[in-house]
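Hi again,

Forgot to attach this to my earlier email, sorry! This is the prediction with manganese (II) ion bound. I've pasted everything inline since the attachment limit keeps bouncing my files.
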Amino acid sequence: MTDTRWTRIVLAAVLAAGAAAPALPAQRTGYTPEEFARRRAALMAEVKDGAIVLFGDAALPAGTHFRQDNDFFYFTGNEDLGGVLVMLPASRSSCLFLPKRSAREIQYDGPGLLEDPDGGAKAGFNDVLAVGDLDEYLARNTERAGRVFHVRLSPRDSLDDARSETALWDGRRSRSHYNAQLSVDQYRIARLRERYPQVELRDAAPAIDALRAVKTAEEIEIMRRNGRLSAEAVKQAMLAGRPGVFEYEIEAAAMAVVLKGGAKGAAYAPIVGSGPNSCIFHYERNDRRVGEGEVVLMDFGADLDHLAMDITRTWPASGKFSDEQREVYRIVLEVQKACIAAYRPGATPRSVRDETAAAMKAKGIDPRGLQGGFGHGVGLCVHDVPLGGVLKEGMVMAIEPALYYPEKGFGVRIEDTVLITKTGCEVLTKGVPKEIDEIERLLAGRGR
Ligand SMILES: [Mn+2]
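Structure tokens for the complex follow:
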């Protein structure tokens, strides 16, 4: 074996180890218990009166890791099933109700907070009680709470559906009256109305959303880490995304990185669209074989410590954009960069649109109808709570301009998630290339 062969083998091993190593140390930052106590105090300070009653999830999902109801998680950090949180702003108290479980149930699912003697105190609750005591507790406090319960009357959001989307899918499902049963949330409201007819129910969602929209220091640290992790995942997917592979192989390359980095999974079904599939906004079959000369559009983000991330990249499978692809890519990229430049505290959809138009004019680019504006918030949900029309420091937004040409068999979308800072914004997902020469250089490095 010659020296040069040795060098090459060692180099290959080092490269392989580098590719296999996680982008970040596997240790996650997570949350402190004080974080959730602070959030409860903030909501009680905002709501001031009545009793705040929030329900957790009641059933395990099939085939995927359990992920607690967003609003319930936000104020409890608790991942047990069937919990109810009751907060009394007047006395600044919060009490968590959890189902009593049999020894056998505990054997199956492991102990929860109710089985931990100091769990409640550690988590900062005044009490952790059996859910069977909930109605007695509410009845005891109805008069003290001024006959007002703040509950979630708005629809819930999920990992990947905003409150408005939950309502929309519900409406779509109900097109046939055979499918039009009430949701568990609607059922809970109906039960509360029946059981407490003297109590006025008010929607807690606006106050919750105002808190959730502005990220805490702990959330920002998690989202920064998720930005780096999800970016590394998309970068590995780009390296895997060449002609001849199936779209699901590209998905697998990204999933391996985020699972290794401590994420529970993807924040939404990964979108890997090659060729004509790049024009389908929410394509997720991911079962087509990538062809020569096509683009691959991948929309992907991890779910890390209950917080989502949202990235889209479009790259030429063969390693170089065609002239037509390059021209479209450049327009989308310039619009995206102009939006990012316009994101700062005080910005509105209008100001972003105006600044983007001015930037395109200055560069002599025809944006082909693409306007800047606001994307969507990102947080516990990929399509997070509404932000109220003006950007504030601590908000997290996805920016995702796109142009689609189904007749030409390709579309381009470029998306980053950004954190609004004091003076502008920090791109959390900058670890994955998006400049044309950066992309072509990265892909050239993978050889043939
Ligand atoms: Mn998005």
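The first strand starts at residue 51 and ends at 55. The first helix runs from residue 3 to 20.

That should be everything now.

G.
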